[in-house]
Design a protein that fits this description.
The protein is α+β, with helices and mostly antiparallel strands and about 230 residues long. About 30% of the residues lie in helices and about 25% in strands.
Amino acid sequence: MTIYLMAQPTKLEVEHLHSGIKPCLSLSVYPNVFAITLFSEVPVTVTTANSSAKPAQPLSWRQKLRSPRFWLKQLRDLSIMALVLYGVSLFLQRDMITGQAPELSGIAIDGSQLALNSAQTEPTLVYFWGTWCPVCRVTSPMVESISQDHKVISVAVASGSAREIQRYMDEHQYNFPVLNDDNGERSTQWGAMAFPAIYIIDPQGEIRYVTSGVTSTWGMKFRLWFAQF
């Protein structure tokens, strides 16, 4: 069959090559409109240049992992996240003191005597926390683990009476030593304004490392080990 495009762009007519056979298909073309009229059973396929292409199939995870562009994007996102977390950490630590550690001693909630002194032979972890602190629920189990191998002095800030704190300790099976700072005097002296606040004190009584917020067990252990030198 032969397709003729008329001078007036209003109609396409499809005809058989054999003479004497009338058009079997009339295709009228208007702006953004196609009207097709079929007069016989002659199979005709019409393809237009304006037909939309099929959407591209999404890449599989295997293909993504092989793409350098994918890894560059992940590296960019991780870098931005690390910078944000570092900025938040600096903000939380802005009031934490450095240099020589202040005096820290008193009667623990279990009746034992606690003291931080410059004559100690090993680094000490000083942990300011609260029973009301959501983040402390993550860090306190870590401090409990560290207290089995290292010296730890913890200070419970604005957490009620010694009996209330001891009940909280028993419920969560914590055994690290605790000083009660119900009025916030000790935390103010140390500049612990965001909780948890963690100080690593070297054997000479110097504050070597400070951190606030979420941390890790290995991070605290590494700082305690490094504070020996």
